[in-house]
Structure formats: C-alpha cells, structure tokens
Amino acid sequence: MNTTSLPPADAGPGGPFARWFAPLAYAYIGYGWWQSSIASLSGAAAAQSPVPLWAAGVFAVGARVAGWLLEAGYYVAWWRWRGRVLSFGRFFQWTVALSTVDLLAEAARRSEPTAAWMRAARAWLAGPRPEAGLNVSSWAIAFGGAGLLTLLRLTLVADVQRRALGSRWMAPALLVAATWVASRVVLAWSRDLLTGSSLR
C-alpha cells in the first residue's frame, strides 16, 4: 500500500499556536493541569501521603503527558496503517491544546453550584459523573463524564484529523468515537477487575 506524504507546512492545519506564543501556551496548559491535579488530590488521603502535594501534581501532569503521547501515537499509527500520513509532532501539539476542553470539564465537575439549573447545566456540560466509590458502578464512572464538552473535544480531534488528511468527516469521526467508547469499556472492565466486582 502506497503512503501519501503531506507537505510539512501547507497541507492541513498548522500548529494550534504561533511559534513565538507556543512555549507560553503549553506552559500555561501544563500549569493549569498541575493546579487541577492538586485540587483533585487534596483531601484527607493527600494529607497522610508522604509525597508532597506539589510533587504529586507534577507526577499527575507527567502521566497526562504520557497519555497525550500515546493518544497521538495511536492515531498516527492507525492512519499510517491505512496508508495515510499524519504528522506526529503537529498532532501531538493539537492533542495538548485540545486538552483545555478537558480542563474546563474538570473545573465544572469540581464546582459546587447551589441553584438547580446550574447543577443541571454542569451535568449537561461535564457529564453526570458520580463520586468514585466501591458501591458505584464502573460503567457509571467510565461513561459518567460524557457531556457536551466531551462531545466538543471529540469533534475537534476528528476535525484536526480530517483537515490534516484532506478527507471527509465520516472516517475520522467514526475512528475517534469508536476509540473513545473502547477506552471507556476498558476503563470499566479494569476497575471491575481491580475492585473484584467482576467476581461477585
């Protein structure tokens, strides 16, 4: 199968930020995820941990960067298998930039609105994700984050691929949607195995 190369600068979307602004933008995104990780990790369990909270936040950001690398590598490998070339570096940049949508969703989930309409809006935007616990269904946790912001991010990821490959919407959209659903199923199964729920 012949592989069709794309010109490095002309075909498809360029990077998400201008070159002079990119270092500041990525540093700000990293700082945002560091703050979000600290907010998620803070609590009684964090107070008893021997690892300082700031260091745990750094580790969490490192794990997220690894996830972005895997995500970008997966899509690049998939399209290469299909005979198309997707720039890893450029797509990785977009993956990091689009994580700001996830960052917004995380902030919405941590919010504690008092008005009923605000709680409903939060559920629509960030998904009705329940609090993690042994008595909570793994499927509810895995798919509970499916809200409008998740749909927005998946749409933007598919759009970046569509523009980079010069293709129609169908193939990238189906790939991104199927990948997201598969990752949620794996998450639910993994949690069931770790908690022993699958053996009950």
How would you characterize this protein structure?
The longest helix is centred in the middle third of the chain and has 29 residues. The chain is mostly helical. It has one domain. The chain is built from 8 helices and no strands. Helix content is 69%, strand content 0%. Helix 4 runs antiparallel to helix 5, helix 4 packs antiparallel against helix 7 and helix 7 crosses helix 8.
Keywords:
globular
Q: Mind sketching the topology for me?
A:
Layout: H1 22-41, H2 44-48, H3 53-81, H4 88-110, H5 116-126, H6 138-143, H7 148-165, H8 170-195
Helix pairs in contact: 1-3, 1-4, 3-4, 4-5, 4-7, 7-8
How many beta-strand elements?
0
Classify the secondary structure makeup into a structural class.
mainly alpha
| Total number of domains | 1
Low-confidence runs:
1-11
* Tally of separate helices: 8
Over the alpha carbons, how many angstroms does the gyration radius reach? 19 Å
Rounded average pLDDT: 86
Order of helices and strands: HHHHHHHH
The proportion of residues forming helix, as a percent range, comes to 55-70%
Q: How big a fraction of the residues is strand?
A: under 5%
- Which of globular, elongated, flat, extended, rod-shaped describes the shape? globular
Span from first to last CA?
48 Å
How would you characterize the largest beta sheet? none
